User: What shape does this take?
Amino acid sequence: MKIWAIANQKGGVGKTTSVVSLGGLLAQQGKRVLVMDLDPHGSLTSYFKLDPDNIEQSVFDLFMHQGKVPDGLPEQLITATSCQGMDIMPASTALATLERRMVGVDGMGLIISKTLAMLWEQYDYVLLDNSPSLGVLMINALAASQQLVVPVQTEFLAIKGLERMMHTLEMVIRSQKSNLRHLILPTMFDRRTQASTQSLRTIKKTWGDNVWKYAIPVDTKFRDASMAGVVPSELDPTTHGVRAYAKLLQTLNDLTSSQA
Ligand SMILES: Nc1ncnc2c1ncn2[C@@H]1O[C@H](COP(=O)(O)OP(=O)(O)OP(=O)(O)O)[C@@H](O)[C@H]1O
Ligand SMILES: [Mg+2]
Assistant: This one.
């Protein structure tokens, strides 16, 4: 099982889009894929026409058992998506109360790790979508995953946000004593604008080898796909945005090739 987390504390940078794009491509290759919505706003959940305000069972339930995950619970929380081969563990808006509830409860940072250990034989890939804030959910995601992808919009303001994210990441990695690898993913790149080309240059200069050598272009098909509730590669497998995600998938597979 390969577990990848997609996270950045900055909002609207393409996290959820990366999860559905990569997940869709993997499912179309015949892989068994689980996507998990760790964002109380539930955008990934809404993407597949589920309602995070009215959902009965969600990721939230995993955290309600004093740091343990009861047998059979993870399976109960999983639903199929419109994309064959790809399942979702949805979010509910109740997740927003998690920080308050978790104060002083031991073992809360490893709930997602424990959950995925119980699903190990059932999926080839797990993609974790995160909210743009550091909290117990993101800590869980970082502890559970083998590879972190940090999408960053190719515009000036986004670079400041990336500095913050990288600082947070260092702190968390140090406290978890893990050697989580990360790949910075330039998104919404528009090579016709100076803002895009200059910020891409700055990102590469500042973060060097940790930056993906290509970028995900601006592509309106992503919004069309989300409106239709289908993964982008199902809407249009040849659009340049999907082709860029296919290339990214190859990079991520290479980076995590030793982990089956
Ligand atoms: N490469 C792209 N080209 C054009 N539009 C994009 C691209 N990537 C994402 N979008 C659009 O930008 C918006 C924000 O993207 P997305 O929801 O993936 O970001 P996010 O980081 O998950 O946001 P949040 O922090 O709110 O969870 C969406 O409407 C999405 O369709
Ligand atoms: Mg999102």
